[in-house]
Amino acid sequence: MRSLGLDLGTKTLGLALSDKTNTIASPYKVLRYENEDYDMLFKELDIIIKEKEITNLVLGLPKNMNNSLGFASDRSLKFKDALENRYHLEVTLIDERLSTVEATNYLLEADMSRKKRKKVIDGVAASIILDTYLKMKGN
User: Fold this and answer.
1) How many angstroms separate the CA atoms of 87 and 14, rounded?
2) Nearest alpha-carbon partner for 41 in 86, 1, 89, 101
């Protein structure tokens, strides 16, 4: 039983994997796509979900600081529906407010260059989203 964390951006999808005991989240990779063409993402996700034996998906839900939903939330909710229809897996939504800020701070503390940060930030944000879920599930 493994979980896959997802951080949906406008051009990228950050991915994070749990370990087989579903207790530790680690950044996995970042997929790129264009024009909300999720078919590009699904081709990669098909392989990952099968090879890594994923049993549930955890998707970040961007909320405004006042807890309201905006345009980015609508995009995530549509993506959630598409994931459920394609994979027939549970998709859990996790509040992702400030996950990218937290990921940026983590990478700055690691003294990572701006160029390298840009390549991995979404995967690290996905691992923060997945870690939040795993901690909630563990309690």
Assistant:
1) 18
2) 86
Q: What tokens does 18 get? A: 């749990």
Reading the block at residue 132, the tokens are: 């939040």
What whole-number distance in Å separates Cα of residue 19 and Cα of residue 118? 25
Q: What is the pLDDT of residues 28-81, one digit of tens each?
A: 999 999 888 899 899 999 999 999 999 999 999 988 778 777 778 899 999 999
Class of domain 2-138 (CATH, top level): alpha beta
DSSP 79: H
Ordered strands of the 2-8 beta sheet: 25-32, 12-18, 2-8, 54-61, 90-95
What is the C-alpha separation between 135 and 18, in angstroms, rounded?
12
